[in-house]
User: What shape does this take?
Amino acid sequence: MTQLIAVEFFKLRKRMMTWVVALLLVGLVVLLYSILWSVSGRVTTFGHDARFTGEELRRALFLQTSVPFSLSIVGSFGIILAVVLAAGAVGSEYSWGTVRLMATASRGRVQLMAAKLIVVCGLVIAGALLGVAVGLVYSSIITFTSGGSNFDFVTGAFIRDQLESCARTLFVLAPYVTMAFAAAVVGRSTLAGVGSAIGFAFMEPLINGLMRVAGSPWEDIPRFLINANVQVVLLQNSLPDVLPHFGPSRRELADRHLNSPEVAALILGLYVVVFVALAFYAYRKRDITAS
Assistant: This one.
């Protein structure tokens, strides 16, 4: 198993796609921080009823909120990049024609798929931490150049809250990563995995909105789908109102009568289990010689 993990890590580490995905995430974090920093110096007030000031936005970009804001970027936009990585890790084996070689060279198909999934999850975690690290560096520059070098906010409770925010963000990525992984296995291509997961991620909020206005019994269905529960979990991360939220607000979610964070996490966990089981079952039962 260790050798399989090393092989899968070597393959993904050497692929240009892995590094492109990482650079896109870094560029996205830098771009959003740069835009907000520029806005904070040019506007006096903004937001609904002009309730925020440019100075409040500038202070919100300091180190104290850098982790939750970076995680909000990862949790919203990093899904696309994580899906591409997960689908490419398994789907490319079919397009390259190496699926037969890997299946016959390894000791078992289950071990091979487990190694792939472990490496994909490890790289997704590394990518999320990279996004946070970039946010911390950029925010540090803003903090020290703007006279905000006070670290009194760093307490045990603060550190624990940041770690919990990291765990929540990584958790909500899991359903989409495993969906892309399973779809790539079933569809035997990277395109099947990327198209299925990204299509579902973008279309589900629109379909949920239509279901909510359609009345009973449709209005209750979004409570059991992925996106609505992802938003419930992500909203537990502490993010100042002055910073942009890439999803519905707490009030909007309350009006929709969605699940509690605990129930939402349970539903997302069930999705992960189903997608992983589907990927393993499809690969184990498939006739590799016909692939």
